[in-house]
Design brief:
Elements: H1 2-30, H2 39-52, E1 58-65, E2 68-75, E3 90-92, H3 98-110, H4 120-123, H5 139-143, H6 154-159, H7 172-179, H8 195-209, H9 213-222, E4 245-246, E5 252-253, E6 268-270, H10 271-280, H11 290-295, H12 314-318, E7 324-330, E8 335-341, E9 346-352, H13 359-371
Antiparallel strand pairs: 1-2, 1-9, 3-6, 4-5, 7-8, 8-9
Helix pairs in contact: 2-13, 3-8, 3-9
Amino acid sequence: MQIVLKIIGITLITITTIVVGIIIYIKYQSNNIKDKKNLADNIDKQANKFIDEGHSYGLVIGVFKNGKTYIQGYGTKENGQNIKPDSRTVFELASTSKLFTTSTLQLLIDNGELNLDDNIQNLLAEKLKLPESAQSTTLQHLATHLSGFPNLPNSFVAKMTDETNPYKDLVDADMYGYLKLCEGKKPDGTFEYSNFGMGLLGHLLEIKTGQYYEQLVKTRLLNPLQMTNTFVTIDSLNKQKIIQGYDEQGNKAPIWTDHVLTGAGSFLSNTEDMIQFIKANLNEGESIISKSLLKTHVQQLNGETGLGWMLPDKYDKLVGNQNMVWHNGMAGGYASFIAIDKTNNYGIIILSNKAIDLTKFAMKLTLSIRTQLWKE
């Protein structure tokens, strides 16, 4: 028995040593990549490979690093054609535009109109009385996915029968119907990524200001940054700028419409506008609202997020992305990814017209952007 225990002990020590060695090697390699000063070529190579492997039909990548902007389109606006998307081509952002909701919240706070610890019951007082499970929930909980609200209530899922446009049949009465009971809500402080929670936050901002969500975000956030091609409402003018979207199987997919959880991710935008957003999140002197935007990067409640922004996990830190904040998004026919690294002075936006998660691809790109300089 002692021999068996000894063998097990030696085996565990060996495995632990190997794992630690691998971790040290990965960390060393990621922090000691030779700078070949070929960043643009590196981005192009990875993007073209992504297209060639069928992960997207049309892709636009925008990078701002050390004062230089690089925007490049890849693939095609529509499968079977040869029309490359560019800096002004509009894509659905999906959940990446949650950052617009939380940024607007911070702007309202800094203007003295709200407080981060405001109780949501107070804002809903004229609408309904929340059950005990939600009586202590705050705006901060909603903005950090720590409200305990489910991603989507079961009552919502039951109405979301159209897979190509799942949110279109939801109405305000569905939100208030759920809030009367808050079924499935976990205690405040419980992390659960919640489209419902972020959608509710957008709705509460409407109640507080008396402005519809889209107009509020435009007034407080987008207009100061001159993001003139970022919108929710599709009209005859901006419709022409939107790239065709495709689901994961390559079937054409429509823009998702949402009248209730708009704050959870309903904006469309282009790379040109999103670079403006990146710049404003990198330097507090870039715009009149940049000081507020930088506050949204700060870790909240010792959790996994800032206000909307996701913070680096253990793997991100292992490969050198410990200073990065990020968010991704995916809808029926689109995907997006944004990251900001203030310490290394760069930001990246990726927009794709196929519903395939960009996060793994994006994280590889951030490694290149962090370690490589532009060609001299």
